[in-house]
Amino acid sequence: MMRAIELAKMGEGLTRPNPPVGAVLVLEGHIVAEGWHRKAGEDHAERDCIGKLPPMPVNLSSATLYVTLEPCSTHGRTPPCTDIILEKGIGRVVVSVVDLNPAHAGRGLKILEEAGVEVVSGVCEAEGRELVAPFEKFITSGMPYVTLKLASTLDGKIADSEGNSKWITGAEARERVQAMRRRADAIMVGAGTVRADNPSLLPRPSEGREPFRVVIGTTIPADCKVLTDGAAGRTFVRYGALVGVLKELAEEHSVMHVLCEGGGKLAARLIEDGLVDEFVFFIAPKLMGADGLPNFAQTGGLIAGVKELKFHSVEQVGEDILIKAKMEK
Ligand code: AOF
Ligand code: ZN
């Protein structure tokens, strides 16, 4: 299943509005085929995997198909995966997580079981759930999953007194940010960040990803990168309630996963409005000092109103620390 999850990850950032899914077919203890979902409208992971079997007939009644998501059971853009599994006579199907898409949700597993296929679910469930978290948010609420990434010094400063923020964290942390961009459907920043840094916000290397870029605010220079480079056609500048902007991204552009990279004011608004699904903090072993410099929560300031988070993972990345956290529900 961990191999199937690895395969699924190759589709992250490419599949909207579909989830990234991976599949592995095992026969007599050996992996005989692998597959993953590349793009909505193209083969699902199961079909991609099974399609890679050699053309000669093989008895698959003792084979196990490992899939990161419950196989679909209805005709969407593509035919149901349950059909091909039954057609090929695969004896056992192991899934990580049930598909929360109301069109499937348990139905695929039931169809397989009723047809005599041995079904196991909940394998590597935490990893499988993490993989489809953006899809689940999108399909169940019509809103994108929002990851808020912030890089700060140990004393919580996200920029210096001249607004410079690019060099707070080290090279490895910046590489990780590129990987996060490849997994997102849209990268969002505040107008202040564009004015201060003139970022491209595109992943490097892009590996085929073409995320939207969303700038929240009114005034950005006409010659900034996001408005003038080759991907400028996928840049949106928006002002107003963030809920409305996020809804527009989901409804009109099938954006399932938004990565917000700050700055402090936009971060504070997202936090205040309860729109952040996951926090990713990069913390550098540096002290900036000085009062009044930008940090990421410019509102509140009383212990009574403190926002409680829960750390999900803590990891050293180069000289920096990466903390993933979620708001306590
Ligand atoms: C699977 N395997 O690899 C994926 C699944 O319009 P379609 O036919 O592409 O179906 C989209 C739905 O299928 C999507 O909303 C989700 O519930 C499921 N995605 N299912 O069995 C896959 N990507
Ligand atoms: Zn399917």
Output the keywords.
Cytidine Deaminase, domain 2; 329 residues; eight-stranded mixed beta sheet; five-stranded mixed beta sheet; 2 domains; binds ligand AOF; alpha/beta; 10 helices
Q: Order of strands across the widest beta sheet?
A: 9-8-7-10-6-11-13-12
**Helical residues, percent:** 25-40%
Ligands (ions, cofactors included): ligand AOF, zinc ion
Q: Briefly note the CATH topology name of the largest domain.
A: Dihydrofolate Reductase, subunit A
Overall outline: elongated
Helices and strands, in order, run as HEEHEHEHEHEHEHEHEHEHEEE
Low-confidence stretches: none
- SS element count, helices: 10
Total number of β-strand segments? 13
Question: Architecture of the largest domain, CATH level 2?
Answer: 3-Layer(aba) Sandwich
- Beta fraction: 15-25%
Mean pLDDT: 92
Helices and strands: which structural class? alpha/beta
The N- to C-terminal Cα distance equals 30 Å
Instruction: Sketch the major β-sheet.
Output: 8 strands, mixed
Can you identify the CATH superfamily of the largest domain? Dihydrofolate Reductase, subunit A
Briefly characterize the structure.
Its EC number is 3.5.4.26, 1.1.1.193. The protein has 329 residues and is an alpha/beta fold. It has helices at residues 2-9, 45-50, 81-87, 107-114, 125-141, 171-183, 191-197, 225-228, 242-253, 264-272; strands at 22-27, 30-36, 64-69, 92-97, 118-121, 145-153, 186-190, 212-216, 235-238, 257-260, 278-284, 309-317, 320-327.
Write the topology of this structure.
Elements: H1 2-9, E1 22-27, E2 30-36, H2 45-50, E3 64-69, H3 81-87, E4 92-97, H4 107-114, E5 118-121, H5 125-141, E6 145-153, H6 171-183, E7 186-190, H7 191-197, E8 212-216, H8 225-228, E9 235-238, H9 242-253, E10 257-260, H10 264-272, E11 278-284, E12 309-317, E13 320-327
Helix pairs in contact: 3-4
Bound molecules: ligand AOF and zinc ion (ZN).
